[in-house]
């Protein structure tokens, strides 16, 4: 054997004998880290502040106890196995025409979603998941070993110009109101104007007079006000107008990803100063820049399948859904999504900027959310593992996963109770 070969072989053996203990040590440390995270995850209350539901939620087409159909990211089995204790199920209505006919459809669609959520908790699975109207309810259900369902509204278009509808929605269980979605409405300016309607960048210069009245009524009822999807001018106006802490239920950090939907440093500080929260969302394009090629590939796929809006997905057959998600998976093999590490980067930035008491976590599952490592409720533990890996304590993780949200919810409801007594 040539001397250089002997030397090479010997070097490999030496290297192997040196590295093997290190590899074993790393594996053991990883195992310990996961076990520590699992233990913490089991003890804290984990709340996802934004889970969308399609129009067919609660039917056989989307049975929350059924084995997953294509694209279904949240079910009760997954919540249990992934350790997701509570979620805000969202009454979302996309922005439509601001006409009597448009408002009538929005009201109808909103009531249908309220009915679907209440049917899940009150009729279909009352022993599995309960409706939580207060922070106390969430804690009680957690002790009882049940999942908690809370209700949020996305898009003030659901009330049109009728503030009194807030009273009805509150009675049905709504505990936060997202002022806007994509496209301006009567309450204020959106972060993303509707291109198809050729909307100007701004209509009101922030929050409208009606929007201010809505914020005031939300304060009086004990409904948290949500600024996700709001233009920064609207966001700052809402925070200034509100007498109670404000939340961003599913947003990213603008400093890390320059997306109009993300929160600027100024908005983060304003949320903190009002005692509110930035709920960091596991949404690919809000966490890091998506390659233009990937954007084009997804746009082409949706065009070919005539998917021009969120509601179009509800009209697909199961076979068509399977085709869509299979083709999407092929696209993501070439251009992978953001990861749990990217999510943690945004969480870490927000914590460093405004403190651990003002940051939380959300997914936007079923509404475009989902990343590598946390693409459905089953994988919720992975977020906690990454937080433990970064050195967050159990107390800090408890705050991020739900403690902060429950504190804000209590503060908002105490204020409302004081207003009713006076």
Give an account of the 3D structure.
The protein is α/β, with parallel strands linked by helices and 422 residues long. The protein contains 14 helices and nine strands. The protein has two domains: 43-288 and 338-421, TIM Barrel, CATH 3.20.20; 291-334, no CATH class. It has helices at residues 3-43, 76-82, 100-124, 135-143, 165-172, 209-221, 232-241, 265-273, 284-287, 292-304, 318-334, 340-354, 381-389, 394-421, and strands spanning 47-52, 86-92, 129-131, 147-154, 174-178, 224-226, 246-251, 277-281, 359-362. Strands 1, 2, 3, 4, 5, 6, 7, 8 and 9 form a nine-stranded parallel β-sheet that branches. Helix 1 packs across helix 13 (381-389), helix 10 packs antiparallel against helix 11 (318-334) and helix 12 packs across helix 13. The longest helix has 41 residues, at 3-43. 46% of the residues are buried. Mean pLDDT is 91; it is low at 1-19.
Quick take:
The protein is of the alpha/beta class. It is 49% helix and 11% strand. Strands 1, 2, 3, 4, 5, 6, 7, 8 and 9 form a nine-stranded parallel sheet that branches.
């Amino acid at each position: 054997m040539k001397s250089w070969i002997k030397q090479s072989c010997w070097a490999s053996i030496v290297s192997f004998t040196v590295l093997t203990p290190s590899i074993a040590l790393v594996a053991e440390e990883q195992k310990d880290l996961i076990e520590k995270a699992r233990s913490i995850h089991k003890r804290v209350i984990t709340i996802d502040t934004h889970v969308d539901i399609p129009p067919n939620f609660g039917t056989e087409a989307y049975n929350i106890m059924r084995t997953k159909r294509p694209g279904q990211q949240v079910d009760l089995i997954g919540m249990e196995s992934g350790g997701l204790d509570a979620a805000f199920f969202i009454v979302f209505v996309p922005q439509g025409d601001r006409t009597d006919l448009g408002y009538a459809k929005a009201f109808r669609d909103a009531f249908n979603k309220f009915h679907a959520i209440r049917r899940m908790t009150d009729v279909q699975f009352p022993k599995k998941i309960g409706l939580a109207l207060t922070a106390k309810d969430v804690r009680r259900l957690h002790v009882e070993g049940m999942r908690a369902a809370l209700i949020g509204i996305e898009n003030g278009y659901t009330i049109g110009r009728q503030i009194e509808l807030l009273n009805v929605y509150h009675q049905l269980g709504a505990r936060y109101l997202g002022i806007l979605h994509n496209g301006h409405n009567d309450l204020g300016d959106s972060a993303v104007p509707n291109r198809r309607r050729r909307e100007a960048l701004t209509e009101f210069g922030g929050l409208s007079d009606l929007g201010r009245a809505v914020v005031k009524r939300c304060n009086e009822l004990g409904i948290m006000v949500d600024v996700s999807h709001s233009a920064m001018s609207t966001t700052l106006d809402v925070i200034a107008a509100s007498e109670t802490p404000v939340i961003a239920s599913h947003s990213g950090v603008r400093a890390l990803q320059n997306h109009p939907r993300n929160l600027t440093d100024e908005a983060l500080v304003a949320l903190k100063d009002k005692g509110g929260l930035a709920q960091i969302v596991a949404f690919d394009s809000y966490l890091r820049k998506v390659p233009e090629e990937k954007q084009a590939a997804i746009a082409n796929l949706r065009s070919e399948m005539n998917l021009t809006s969120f509601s179009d997905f509800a009209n697909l057959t199961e076979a068509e859904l399977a085709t869509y998600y299979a083709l999407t998976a092929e696209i993501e093999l070439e251009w992978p999504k953001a990861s749990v590490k990217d999510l943690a980067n945004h969480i870490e930035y927000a914590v460093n900027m405004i403190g651990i008491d003002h940051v939380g976590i959300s997914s936007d599952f079923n509404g475009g959310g989902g990343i590598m490592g946390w693409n459905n409720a089953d994988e919720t533990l992975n977020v906690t593992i990454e937080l433990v890996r970064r050195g967050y304590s159990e107390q800090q993780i408890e705050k991020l996963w739900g403690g902060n949200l429950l504190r804000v919810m209590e503060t908002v409801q105490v204020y409302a109770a004081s207003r009713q007594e006076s």
